[in-house]
């Protein structure tokens, strides 16, 4: 999970130095009237900001055939896919997701980016959304807002990976292909649940939080939460190479942690971390029918392979190829999901085996 909150670490110390600029997407807003959350709460208007690259192409029946849905991670937004290690590999001319060929849709999830969120004004009175609400809003955008009956591909990273599993179970024919990256199809428990709770507790126990009605951001609480996020997203091997001494670590932390803290709204972060509380697609894995390639990395702190969850689940997924990328100086821990060079060959094979 935690794509954008953890992404800054990888970008800051592990950049590949690519020079090509990412394409600039077109922003749009889609509004759902009287959106009812699974908690029973409602919003008279739920706004979903989304970004697009490319143009829809239709078949003889007028149905869109080239739409690709990209789903971001916790704390992120659709714009995160413009990072060079993703965009310069996949969106480049001739790339696997070249906008000249595909209509790429990148929504901001509920509570994220420029979509409706607690920091818009409701603060802790904002409806207590969960992943089910986020996926329902995404589906409304695709089916009603864009009029797309079947996507060519759903690719999700971290939280978006989990959303991808939910899409695949709820709407088995919604996409011709699926590529979830960096998640497990199981309820959030154990260490994964613990560090999330500790991050939330760091904020809510800061006296400056004031039950969410703060006049200024509770900086110490956010700093504690962000520190946990950085560690959860880190990969030992490349970090050891890039920060080989105590002095190097200290200098990096002093320079970078404040940058991670500054843009965060405390209530938005609390909601984002707690939205996973009801996630558990494990009972319905057999409902997944589309060709799927599911990729995790061996150095992922958040989804550790030693749990054996992925291997057990993969046996129930008859249309799925499960790939575990070995840890190396090239992998990026949990953030490997956005370094497309690590898994683009798998994406190419998935697009080929799932048809034109």
In short:
The chain is α/β, with parallel strands linked by helices and 356 residues long.
Structure write-up:
- Strand 7, helix 10 and strand 8 form a beta-alpha-beta unit.
- The chain is globular and about 60 Å long.
- The protein has helices at about 5-15, 85-90, 130-145, 160-170, 190-205, 220-235, 235-240, 245-260, 265-275, 310-315, 345-355; strands at about 25-35, 40-55, 65-70, 105, 155, 180, 290-295, 320-325.
- Helix content is about 35%, strand content about 15%.
- The two termini are about 30 Å apart.
- It folds into 2 domains: about 5-185 and about 280-355, Rossmann fold, CATH 3.40.50.1820; about 190-275, Orthogonal Bundle (Rna Polymerase Sigma Factor, Chain: A), CATH 1.10.1740.110.
- With about 350 residues, it is α/β, with parallel strands linked by helices.
- It has an 8-stranded mixed β-sheet, sandwiched between helices.
- Mean pLDDT is about 95; it is low at about 1-20.
List the helices and strands and how they pair.
Layout: H1 3-14, E1 26-36, E2 42-53, E3 67-71, H2 84-90, E4 103-107, H3 131-145, E5 153-157, H4 159-170, E6 178-181, H5 190-204, H6 219-233, H7 236-242, H8 246-261, H9 266-274, E7 292-297, H10 309-314, E8 320-325, H11 344-353
Parallel strand pairs: 3-4, 3-5, 5-6, 6-7, 7-8
Antiparallel strand pairs: 1-2, 2-4
């Amino acid at each position: 999970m935690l794509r954008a909150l953890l992404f800054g670490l990888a970008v800051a110390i592990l950049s590949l130095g690519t020079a090509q600029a990412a394409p600039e997407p077109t922003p749009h807003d889609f509004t759902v009237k009287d959106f009812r959350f699974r908690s029973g709460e409602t919003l008279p208007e739920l706004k979903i900001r989304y970004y697009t690259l490319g143009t829809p192409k239709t078949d003889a029946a007028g149905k869109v055939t080239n739409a690709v849905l990209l789903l971001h991670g916790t704390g992120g937004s659709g714009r995160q896919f413009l990072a060079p290690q993703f965009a310069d590999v996949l969106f480049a001319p001739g790339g696997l997701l070249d906008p000249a060929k595909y209509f790429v849709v990148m929504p901001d999830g509920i509570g994220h980016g420029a979509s409706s969120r607690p920091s818009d004004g409701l603060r802790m009175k904002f409806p207590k959304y969960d992943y089910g609400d986020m996926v329902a809003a995404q589906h409304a955008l695709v089916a009603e807002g864009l009029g797309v009956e079947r996507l060519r591909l759903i690719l999700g990273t971290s939280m978006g990976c989990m959303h991808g599993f939910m899409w695949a179970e709820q709407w088995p024919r919604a996409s011709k292909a699926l590529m979830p990256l960096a998640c497990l199809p199981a309820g959030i428990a154990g260490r994964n649940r613990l560090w999330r709770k500790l991050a939330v507790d760091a904020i809510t126990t800061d006296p400056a939080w004031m039950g969410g009605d703060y006049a200024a951001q509770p900086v110490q609480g956010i700093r504690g939460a962000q520190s946990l996020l950085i560690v959860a997203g880190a990969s030992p091997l490349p970090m050891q190479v890039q920060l080989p001494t105590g002095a190097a670590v200290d200098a990096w932390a002093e320079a970078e942690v404040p940058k991670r803290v500054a843009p965060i709204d405390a209530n938005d972060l609390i909601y984002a971390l707690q939205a996973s509380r009801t996630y558990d697609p494990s009972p319905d894995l057999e409902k997944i029918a589309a060709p799927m390639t599911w990729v995790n990395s061996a150095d992922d702190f958040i989804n550790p392979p030693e749990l054996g969850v992925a291997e057990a689940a993969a046996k129930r997924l008859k249309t799925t190829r499960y790939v575990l990328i070995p840890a190396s100086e090239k992998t990026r821990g949990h953030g490997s999901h956005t370094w497309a060079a690590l898994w683009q060959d798998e994406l190419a094979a998935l697009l080929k085996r799932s048809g034109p």
